[in-house]
Amino acid sequence: MTPTPHRPHPEIFDIAVIGGGIVGSAIARELSGHDVSVALLEARDDVGDGTSKANTAILHTGFDAKPGTLESRLVARGYHLLSDYAKATGIPVEHTGAVLVAWNQEELDALPALKEKAEANGYEHCRIVDADEVYRVLPDLGEGVLGGLAVPDESIICTWTTNLALATDAKQRGTTLLLEHAVTGIDVGDDATTLYTARGDVRARWVVNAAGLGADMIDQLFGHDRFTVTPRRGELFVFDKLARPKVGKIVLPVPSSRGKGVLISPTIYGNVMLGPTAEDLTDRTNTATSEDGYDFLLSKGARLMPSLLSEEVTASYAGLRAAIDRDDYLIEATPEQRYLLVGGIRSTGLTAGIAIAEHVTGLLAETGLGLRSRSDLPAPPRMPNIGEATTRPYQDTDLIAEDTAYGTIVCFCERVTEGEIRDACHAPVPARSLEGLRRRTRAMNGRCQGFFCGAAVAALRTQHQTDDGCCSQHKDK
Ligand SMILES: Cc1cc2nc3c(=O)[nH]c(=O)nc-3n(C[C@H](O)[C@H](O)[C@H](O)COP(=O)(O)OP(=O)(O)OC[C@H]3O[C@@H](n4cnc5c(N)ncnc54)[C@H](O)[C@@H]3O)c2cc1C
Fold first, then answer.
1. What is the pLDDT of residue 466?
2. What is the rounded average pLDDT of the residues 126-147?
3. pLDDT above 50 (res 5)
4. What is the mean pLDDT of the chain?
5. Is 369 helix (H, G, I), strand (E, B) or coil?
6. Which helix or strand (DSSP H or E) is residue 239 part of?
7. Is 80 an active-site residue?
8. pLDDT at residue 196 above 60?
9. CA of 182 to the centre of ligand 1 (A)
10. Angle between helices 434-441 and 159-172 (to 10 degrees)
11. Which residue ranges have their beta carbon within 6 Å of ligand 1?
């Protein structure tokens, strides 16, 4: 069973999607709801290991998008599609609502225009509120609030489960998931395009480029020179669960031209998050946190909610937005190359992913690619609950009575059980590393960051390691 590089997959897929983040997984899922064969190629050893794993995890209504853009349309639609999909699959969501807080006269004066903008985006529920009301719902905010804009439908969601649900669904609908398949070269032939990877070549009639931070490089391999991705780093602090009662709603700043600014948000796992920063880098792999970022967040936090800074910080992390030099998504088909680019999905792709997939499918259909909907689709997967708002396995006495592994806690900080770790190792898209287990179960994600449970979690992973077949297509029989 040794890998044989450069051995082509025997099948020519109808469509190959490059990138197993939220956007690529959503596209593969949507396309395999039609009568076509689909391959999903991901460079890393897991889906959702790029930008999609490290964001602020807000399900945006799209109230503050630029009206008339593709992004505005797809975020607004994505909000509803993902809310419904979360219900169907069990992705944790909490409809907390948000308050956009004005701290000076200029920001206060900007609120009516922001409300009008929300209405131009089709979102009618924003309400301007006075300082008393802001302090009533967020009593721990710092001094000096002048007023706010309530956005009752902004929500928090689990980005990890979203990516996994979409990839699992795609796989169960028949998508061939090819992990560790970094595309390094492309040859557009008359009938099929060859994607070169170190694990073997993959051929497909159509190619969809959803490579996130690497989308411009793939685009260049197709011979284009239309945009450059700038990795825009966002650093965040995660505060301990004891801080959660302070933050019942998402606290948003008045946005500036640099982006949405620093926010405070409850998380779906019961913590509180402060961030993100916005810093343009050149290194597309630099997800380290920095001293400057740390200082900046402390200064922002001190203004927004001083008492938050006396809470323990559980972790800090950084994600890279795929910023491009235009103010909208860049989604374009090049029919003569049977190629479609999905670029510039910068700071809203978690929310918009399913709507982007729908849009991409529409564009492919317009090119004449026969896309007949299937009538034999499997039910969407039911995902394990790792959110705090509903019953977790360790709290479920019926489940524990059926299977005592759900009563055996392995990670005490996050209350993750042996049953959940076992299930994550045997899932349709299984955990293939400790990081993969962390995203599927929350194990090692709490205060001790795996100091106490790491060895036990690693032992369970070794015990339950499976060959999931995600890379085996090019191995000798
Ligand atoms: C700090 C921060 C905060 C954010 N907050 C929010 C938020 O609150 N709400 C929201 O909706 N959005 C938010 N976003 C945006 C959201 O996270 C992204 O838009 C979304 O994750 C992009 O998904 P993607 O699939 O395009 O990219 P990715 O998740 O990066 O996926 C692209 C994949 O392509 C793979 N790839 C790259 N090159 C190749 C290659 N050559 N061959 C094969 N595979 C390749 C990568 O390994 C990667 O897995 C935030 C982003 C950041 C950084």
1. 80
2. 98
3. no
4. 94
5. coil
6. strand 230-239
7. no
8. yes
9. 16
10. 100
11. 18-24, 41-44, 49-52, 55-58, 60, 182-183, 210-214, 218, 234, 276, 319-321, 345-351
What CA–CA distance (Å, rounded) separates 447 from 465? Answer: 26
DSSP summary character for residue 31: H
Relative to the CA of 58, which ligand 1 atom is closest? Answer: 8
- Cβ(128)–Cβ(282) below 8 Å: no
Question: 213-220 contacts: CB < 8 A, separation 24 or more?
Answer: 213/50, 213/51, 213/284, 213/320, 213/322, 214/19, 214/43, 214/284, 215/19, 215/322, 215/341, 215/342, 215/343, 215/344, 216/324, 216/343, 218/18, 218/183, 218/186, 219/341, 219/343
Q: Which residues contact 97 (CB under 8 A, 6 or more apart)?
A: 150, 151, 152, 153, 154, 155, 249, 250
Helix (H) or strand (E) holding 358: helix 349-366
Mutational test site, ligand 1, from 29, 30, 49, 52, max ligand atoms within 8 Å of CB: 52
Nearest to 321 by CA among 258, 254, 250, 249: 258
Single-letter amino acid, residue 359: H
Report which DSSP code applies to 384.
P
Helices marked H in 32-158: 70-89, 105-120, 131-137
Cα–Cα distance between 72 and 152 in angstroms, integer? 18
Cis ω before 276 (30° cut-off from 0): yes
Average pLDDT over residues 340-368: 97
CA-nearest of 368, 14, 41 to 218 is 41
Round to the nearest angstrom and report the end-to-end CA distance of the chain.
7
Q: Does the model's pTM come out above 0.85? A: yes
pLDDT tens for each residue of 54-103: 999 999 999 999 999 999 999 999 999 999 999 999 999 999 999 999 99
- Residue appearing with tokens 């439908």: 153
